[in-house]
Amino acid sequence: MEIGLIGLPQVGKTTLFNLLTGASYPTGILGETKVHTGSAPVPDARVDFLAALYRPQKVTYARVNFKDIPGVDLRGGEKGAAVRFFEEVRGADALCCVVRAFTAAGVPTYFDALLPLREFQELYAEILLADIMLVERRLERIRSGKKVSKQAAAEVALLERCLAALNEERPLTEVTRTPEEEALFAGYGFLSLKPLLLAVNVDEDGLKGGYPQQEALLRYATERGIPVVEVAARIEAEIAELPPEDRVEFLDNLGLQEPGIARLARAAYRALGLISFFTVGEDEVKAWTVREGTVAKRAAGKVHSDIERGFIRAEVFAFDDLRQLGSPAKLREAGLLRLEGKDYVVRDGDVIHFRFKV
Ligand SMILES: Nc1nc2c(ncn2[C@@H]2O[C@H](COP(=O)(O)OP(=O)(O)O)[C@@H](O)[C@H]2O)c(=O)[nH]1
Ligand SMILES: [Mg+2]
């Protein structure tokens, strides 16, 4: 599960990537060509709560992978200039577009002024254009083929519907498809089919008092169902250098309860359709990642293949019930401890103990 970070050059993608993954790649490189990959913990207050309760030796958060690619430079002017940059994120499961809403004297701006909405619109247009080019290429290939099979005809009809949507500036998520068409879709790596989120990289002023185009940007994203996370990458990087006990105070001064990258990591996790269940004990409290809709037996397989094979029952309670009542014993008294079978659909926040025999 990987999120591709995309954006114009010098908007703070690598700074954000470093913050998320704990890496320390150089930032501020003009004409950057390197691609970085790494994984980021998904901060979760529920895990913290469980850790405080069970006092385990080890605490493990969920993780998501990020890929940081060179900034898309559109100033060459040729049509579809972004496509070659986007090739790096063809295989990503979701995209996070980073836009610049910070001022910094030494960092060249892409436009004459700070225009985060315009950045996003231009990038979004490039995403749609990249898909248009892909559809057109595929249509051409099918049409130039000699045999016209039934499947090819079905594919042409689908691709034409795609083209119509894209030309109306609608992403491919809005094209309705039958299950058969869904299968045809799978192999293409269309960009506008991927969940998209928007990270706005702000400075301290932006955090406290807003930034240019803020309202219009938020409206534009909301209208399209695109989640927005505002982060202050540079300041957060500075705060991350401080000893942990000082961090809270600095975040507090900025009016933040937690770092923006925590929100970003969680938004990415959600955009990927992922949920967490927890296992608890004296040795480890751990968040496990499954897709929404995963059944108990499959979830057990995440923990160990033996547990999936020898699955008997899942003992389940909801994290929120535990937080309310305070202890597993009280949950039992209240009848909130459930025994579930192999087809139980795991919910986000379930605390599970698997019973199995080998
Ligand atoms: N003042 C300020 N500078 C930032 C911020 N984020 C990134 N920068 C600086 O902007 C430059 C470009 O950052 P980088 O992460 O390399 O951007 P990328 O090209 O999008 O990967 C670097 O000099 C960063 O230190 C921010 O939030 N505030
Ligand atoms: Mg970079």
Automatic annotation (TrEMBL):
Cofactor(s) the protein needs: Mg(2+)
GO annotations of cellular component type: cytoplasm
Domain TGS: 273-356
Pfam families tied to this protein: MMR_HSR1, YchF-GTPase_C
TM ranges: none
Keyword Metal-binding: yes
Signal peptide: none
InterPro entries assigned to the protein according to its UniProt record, in alphabetical order: ATPase_YchF/OLA1, Beta-grasp_dom_sf, GTP-bd, P-loop_NTPase, TGS, TGS-like, TGS-like_dom_sf, YchF_C
SUPFAM superfamilies assigned: P-loop containing nucleoside triphosphate hydrolases, TGS-like
CDD domains linked to this entry: TGS_YchF_OLA1
Keyword Heme appears in the UniProt entry: no
GO molecular-function terms, A-Z: ATP binding; ATP hydrolysis activity; GTP binding; metal ion binding
Keywords in alphabetical order: ATP-binding, Metal-binding, Nucleotide-binding
Protein name: TGS domain-containing protein
Organism: Thermodesulfitimonas autotrophica
